[in-house]
Design goal:
Structural class: alpha/beta
Number of domains: 1
CATH class: Alpha Beta
Number of strands: 8
Radius of gyration: 22 Å
Number of helices: 11
Bound molecules: S-adenosylmethionine
Shape: globular
Length: 282
């Protein structure tokens, strides 16, 4: 399991939060009773769900105790039910009611084999319910390609490559088809954000700061010994500086994200019985 540092993750919060609100903009639920956030993280976005639907019971699910602790601290009024669970085994049925909205923002890329899980979650949605996901689609970007290349040069290359391979996401059309097969009307799309990091010029290596909060976590978890960590980080930091040079506006990190929103269409009402043909009278 990947470790999470809520403080590091909260840096760049504006860039990380924007896709969530763009995702939510396509969810048409008006008065949901039960709203669930899968991979809720450190909490601010789950609390935004509670603000959007003040009458709803809101549940945040995550398996990182550090993130859940930060979320509980943020939620001083106890508005949200924070649940520790692994999404690979979490079941909708554990909620005791069918959710009307399930949201998962920037989390499912960490759950290998999440496509079949989505089918199960949608099956557990209430009729007329909504399922909305956003995942990074940037595993081919220089930030990640360089990570894999430098991992291959390390003594513990096999472990590193294995750990990095576990994270991944699918294409918008794949999520579209999975959700459609599960009985949803689907809206799927992608957006590449040209993110300007550190316009003030305060950070030595803003892209390294960015990935240290997310994509680099599996490497940092494995390489805990200072010398082995330095053997990875020194070439990786240098490669990032070349791949993402500072410009007049800051360091530009192009970031592709994949979105899919499914609306579970109510099961069609039973067709009225076909009236039997009138008996000819003459
Ligand atoms: C990048 S953070 C996103 C947090 C939040 N949704 C947001 O958008 O700010 C990914 C979150 O997914 C959680 N996560 C990853 N794998 C998980 C799993 N198998 N089960 C539950 N949570 C998981 C992590 O603990 C982390 O809090």
């Amino acid at each position: 399991m990947t470790s999470w540092d809520p403080t590091q993750y909260a840096r760049f919060a504006d860039h990380r939060n924007r896709p969530f609100f763009e995702l939510l903009g396509r969810v048409g639920a008006t008065a949901p009773r039960l709203v669930v956030d899968l991979g809720c993280g450190n909490g601010p976005l789950t609390l935004a769900l509670a603000e959007r639907w003040p009458q709803a019971r809101v549940v945040g699910v995550d398996n990182a105790l550090s993130m859940l602790a930060a979320a509980r601290e943020l939620d001083a009024e106890g508005r949200v039910e924070w649940v520790e669970a692994d999404l690979a085994t979490w079941e909708v049925g554990s909620l005791g009611a069918a959710p009307d909205v399930i949201v998962s923002n920037a989390a499912l890329q960490w759950v290998p084999g999440h496509l079949p899980l989505i089918e199960g979650w949608v099956a557990g949605l209430a009729d007329d319910g909504w399922f909305a996901l956003q995942v990074p689609g940037n595993f081919g970007a220089p930030s990640h390609r360089l990570m894999r290349e430098i991992a291959r040069e390390q003594e513990r290359s096999v472990e590193l490559e294995g750990a990095l391979k576990r994270a991944g996401s699918a294409e918008p059309a794949t999520y579209l088809q999975f959700l459609a097969r599960a009985g949803c009307e689907v809206d799927a799309w992608e957006t590449t954000y040209e993110q300007v990091l550190d316009p003030e010029g305060e950070q030595d290596n803003p892209v390294l700061e960015w990935v240290s909060g997310t994509g680099l976590r599996p490497v940092l978890d494995l390489l805990t010994e200072p010398a082995e960590r330095a053997a990875f980080l020194e070439p990786y930091a240098a490669a990032l500086l070349s791949a993402y040079p500072r410009t007049a506006v800051g360091v530009i990190l192009s970031f592709r994200r994949v979105f899919a929103v499914g609306h579970k269409t109510p099961a069609p009402a039973a067709a009225p019985a076909v009236p039997s043909a009138p008996t000819p009278t003459s």
